[in-house]
Amino acid sequence: MIDRQYIWRTTLVVVLLLAAWSGLAVRLGMLHLNDNVKLRDRIQRMRIVKEELRVGRGRVLDRNENILALDLPVKDIRVDPVVVLSNGQARVISQVLARTLDLPYKQVYDRVNRPGRRDEPIMRFATEEVADRVARLKMPGVFFRSQTMRFYPHTTLACHVLGFSNMEGVGSAGIEQRLDSYLKGRSGFRESLRDGKRHELPDRRKIVIAAEEGADVHLTLDMNVQYYLEKALDAAMTNFNPEAAWAIVQDVRTGFILGMASRPAYDLNIFNETGPDIRLNRAIGVNYEPGSVFKIGVVAAAINEGLIATNDLFDCENGMWFYAGRPLKDFHPYGILDVTGILRKSSNIGAAKIAVMLGPERLYRYLKEYGLGRTTGIELPGEETGILNPVGKWAKVDITRIAMGHTVAVTALQMLNMICCIGNDGFLMKNHIVRKVVDKDGVVLFENKPEAVARPITERTAALMRQMLMEVTREGGTGTRAAIPGFNVAGKTGTAEKIQDGRYVHNANVSSFMGIFPAERPEIGIVVVLDNPQPLRTGGVTAGPVFAQIAEPVARYLDIQPVNATEMGYYQRMLEDEP
Amino acid sequence: MARRNRKNEQRGNRFAVWGIGIITILAVMMGLYLRLCSTCEQLGRKIKEQEYLRAEMHKQVVNEQRNWSMACSIINMERMLAAQGIAMTFPEQKNIIRLKPLEPADPLQYAQRNSARD
């Protein structure tokens, strides 16, 4: 009986085992012998891992290799509410996260307490240190997602020049926008297989396209010059209450921009909290009527043409002169002034008479040669061309208005180029704010070299102009507050009336000062523009001191030496020589 | 007694030699294949490790760069100086002593100096 039962059970087990093995064998045979395309594809799909290899943007550096913008590895701190809620830890985890991340408890709890959700962000762009602090707490349901964030260590410094890249990593303003193609690099691609634990099998990589990291952009800006510039503009915003202010510092000999700033400014790390008006780079993106600073272009043209000499006398009509049936007034009435006096006192009538002597065609030709009415081509987006109508569109009276910087519109950079041209022996230099672009292997992709684009005036005219413009910052001139100890400054003040509702308004002005120093051998050119300063309004008392506040520390920082007696003698002899 | 068929005997040996040869070659090839597989796997692991290490190093470098640029930031420096109640200004020109190199810096000048000595 026992034996029969044993045999029966044994037989059953053997039959079952055989059946199971046969089933497996059949299945194995089917898997191997049949086509099984769908199944194979499904497995293949599960095993294949396709990955985009992302790279960070390149850095932006100043001319001394100080980092102005870089990509920072950060982590998003996220929670899986399903896990947290199933553990019944929503309140505890919310409290710990809120305390660790310094966030309001309610905000965190609202995120954690979302049944059915698998991925809720708690903090975006947390630094590695913060993420590590949270990771050490080992909270179930809290996880991290690595990514990069554009970071600007100096927050507002050079904000209008640098611009920003948006949340998608696309350059959207300033250098970040203009040089986006260099900065962004190129993402790579990898296709390989993964094992059962979902780990990539590096020896099974099928396609690997290496990522190309973004190139570094080296600017001509100097972080310290930029700082002095912005500090002075901040003080100007407090002292003179303008609606806006902007200034540029340029290397006279090369045309390279050492500093460029606008006010109001914004923090680049929170760019999305500011409006487009604040983001506007006014130094190149605002056209304005320059006012009396424009006179230097007219006088230089007339001297260059040999129409006038520095000591020629002009009757300034005691402050009122009619031309083409329209009156022209001076701010203060003057009688007879020589050309130097016209610049020193900023006589509108004197400048207008010189412009009339020059004639519209010649004046227009010179203005074009100074680079007016077209962009300078600086590597920044949003540059305005200014407004310089062709001679055919000029009314008869316009020549007298253009002489005093009205009926034309310029950008601050164009005006700075005009005075730098005088400082650079008549050579107009091409502006650059990008010195070079270098890829990650150290290969220089491009480098900007100083380049002269025109020579509107001769060396002698330039020297004469510098000598006359020195008088502006000396006793009796309109720009005495722009003087800096130890240096001669050649400059010009400007106070243009603003147009509101189609009419010039007397008590709203654009005040400016532009100058070069040392006047005998200029190295640095600076332009300062204040939009509607109040209650002081003239360029000499508002923009002039700002110029000095920038120029003095810049001269010390760049170690610019005043001209010594030997050099002075050389320049004096050059002026005394007949052309 | 029948004579030994030497011809058949030789043929049998030849098959055995060939068989052993083929099996040996196959075994060697399999061994090589396994060896290559394991080498590839090891290399893959190393590549992965190096990639991870590189990413970590890059993170560290970038974080240090950030810290350094923050430390160098003139705004932060001024803030720190102000917090310590320190006011710094440029020295007066008369207080600056400018040092000039005694030796000529240009190699060409060295050459000229040496030739003059000769």
Which short descriptors sum up this protein?
heterodimer; A: 579 residues; alpha+beta; Penicillin-binding protein 2a (Domain 2); Beta-lactamase; seven-stranded mixed sheet; five-stranded antiparallel sheet; 21 helices; 37% helix; B: 118 residues; mainly alpha
Radius of gyration of chain B (CA) equals 40 Å
The quaternary state of the protein chains shown equals: heterodimer
What sort of overall outline of chain B do the alpha carbons produce when their principal axes are compared?
A: rod-shaped
- Unreliable stretches of chain B (pLDDT < 50, length at least 5) are none
Give the helix tally of chain B. 3
Q: Write the CATH fold name of the largest domain in chain A.
A: Beta-lactamase
Shape type of chain A: elongated
Content-based structural category of chain A: alpha+beta
Distance between the termini of chain B: 112 Å
Q: Label the structural class of chain B.
A: mainly alpha
Output mean pLDDT of chain B.
80
Proportion in helices of chain A: 25-40%
User: Segments of chain A where pLDDT lies below 50 for 5+ residues?
Assistant: none
The largest sheet of chain B, given as strand count, sense and whether it forms a barrel, is: none
Supply the CATH architecture of the largest domain in chain A.
Answer: 3-Layer(aba) Sandwich
Specify the biggest β-sheet of chain A: 7 strands, mixed
Strand content of chain B: under 5%
> How many strands appear in the DSSP assignment of chain A?
22
Strand and helix order of chain B: HHH
Could you name the CATH class of the largest domain in chain A? Alpha Beta
Commentary on this structure:
The complex is a heterodimer of chains A (579) and B (118). By secondary structure, chain A is of the alpha+beta class. Chain A is 37% helix and 23% strand. The longest helix of chain A is centred in the first third of the chain and has 32 residues, at 2-33. Chain B has 118 residues and is mostly helical. Chain B contains three helices and no strands. Chain B has helices at residues 6-72, 74-83, 107-117. Chain A binds chain B through residues 56, 59, 66-68, 70-73, 128, 151, 153-155, 157, 200-205, 223-224, 227, 486, 553, 556-557, and chain B through 40-41, 43-45, 47-48, 58-59, 62-63, 65-66, 68-70, 72-75, 90, 93.
